[in-house]
Design a protein that fits this description.
mainly beta; Immunoglobulin-like; 6-stranded mixed beta sheet; 5-stranded antiparallel beta sheet; 2 helices; elongated
Length: about 400
């Protein structure tokens, strides 16, 4: 799961020798700040102990760098940092080294970020950790840790350079991405790669519209996550496009990040027994079947529903942008054509009924053309024989 799409209250279950279980929540998960050289800023983190027992947490701080192209951070202890170009942890002062929370207690922890006189302009990245356990040899014996990301930008000679590296379509196979251009089922995965060549973090966002062969934009295809400026999950909304980086993930300087956007189908709300609504997705067959039903409300007696395999060519149009100089947005566009196959229902002749009608008409024709004339001839002969017999008697 992408880090910046975590819920606003991140719940983590911990276990250690002195506690059976401890349930904690923390917010916000991310602080993005702009601080000038020589300046400082205080920020607050809120922690809640949701368990039935007290817990003591120990704080620590580390830098972080881009771990891979999915946005997962790699944390680096200050003593292991090979370069301080984007380092931040040494600029952070945490108000409390350890915190003891009673059951159900919420505590605010303040921290200070102070930019030194020689602080390099651009992005700097660190994290504050909260860990249960007891210090051992000056270190915290970590069982599991909760962390808050700190991203700051120091004004000055800021280099903002980003580029879209690729836009591909494919499938998920064994948790990996496999390019493809023909699909029979969902989900269909769109992969966008973006590279940050500047010295501060960038937040590219975008959308993918799907257009059919007639130039019609497909509706009800996307589900967009709504994220607060602090990285908290707010909710979701249903849209007529497939969002790219709706989790507002950052691309760190000198790194490349891959964003996956899934097309799960055509969404529709479904009313539950308790009056609530949930969103479900139709596949291509269901979607086009419903559209055909809307156009044709009823069938004539000689018509019936048939099924055939249909191929459609769709064009996926990507628009991706990031904030550039003077709050302007630099935009990239790309398109891919894909083929989708599905079982289509269509209105055709009711061949069974037509066959029955033909059989009845054949029987009727046989009766009229053969049976009736033969019956008339037989009746005429019987009448002639009767008249001849009467004449003989007379």
């Amino acid at each position: 799961m992408k880090l910046l799409r975590f819920l606003s209250i991140f719940t983590l279950f911990l276990s250690c020798t002195s506690l059976v279980h401890a349930s904690l929540s923390i917010s916000p998960l991310k602080h993005e700040l702009t601080i000038e050289t020589w300046k400082e800023k205080f920020e607050t983190i809120k922690i809640t102990n949701n368990s039935d027992t007290p817990i003591t947490l120990y704080t620590s701080k580390e830098d972080f760098i881009a771990g891979d192209d999915t946005g997962t951070p790699t944390f680096v202890k200050p003593q292991n940092q090979t370069s301080d170009e984007y380092s931040l942890s040494s600029w952070i002062t945490i108000e409390n080294q350890n915190i003891t929370l009673a059951k159900g207690e919420t505590r605010e922890v303040r921290f200070l970020v102070k930019v030194p006189p020689k602080g390099e302009p651009g992005g700097h990245y660190g994290a504050i950790f909260f860990s249960p356990g007891a210090p051992s040899g000056g270190q915290v014996a970590v069982v599991q840790r909760l962390w808050v990301l700190i991203l700051i930008n120091v004004p000055g000679n800021i280099k903002i350079v980003g580029s879209m590296q690729s836009f591909d379509v494919g499938k998920k196979i064994d948790k990996g991405f496999s390019p493809a251009n023909s699909f029979q089922e969902f989900p269909i995965v769109f992969e966008t790669k973006f590279k940050n060549e500047g010295n501060t973090h960038l937040k590219p966002i975008g959308k993918i519209e799907l257009v059919d062969e007639k130039g019609e934009v497909l509706k009800n295809i996307g589900k967009e996550t709504i994220i607060s400026p602090w990285g908290a999950y707010v909710g979701e909304k249903m849209v007529d496009y497939i969002p790219v980086n709706d989790g507002l993930g950052n691309v760190l300087p000198g790194s490349e990040r891959r964003f996956e956007s899934n097309w799960e189908g055509f969404w529709y709300p479904e009313l539950q027994a308790d009056g609530s609504k949930i969103v479900k997705f139709k596949d291509l067959t269901g979607y086009y079947a419903d559209r055909a039903a809307e156009k044709r409300a009823f069938l004539q007696f000689w018509e019936s529903i048939h099924i055939r395999t249909v191929s459609k060519i769709l064009t996926a149009n990507l628009i991706l942008s990031y904030e550039w100089k003077d709050k302007e947005r630099k935009e990239f566009r790309d398109s891919k054509k894909i083929t989708v196959e599905y079982e289509e229902q269509y209105v055709g002749f009711n061949y069974a009924l037509i066959a029955i009608i033909l059989i009845l008409l054949t029987i009727l024709g046989y009766y009229i053309l053969l049976v009736v004339p033969a019956s008339k001839e037989r009746l005429r002969k019987e009448l002639m024989d009767a008249m001849e017999a009467r004449n003989k008697q007379d």
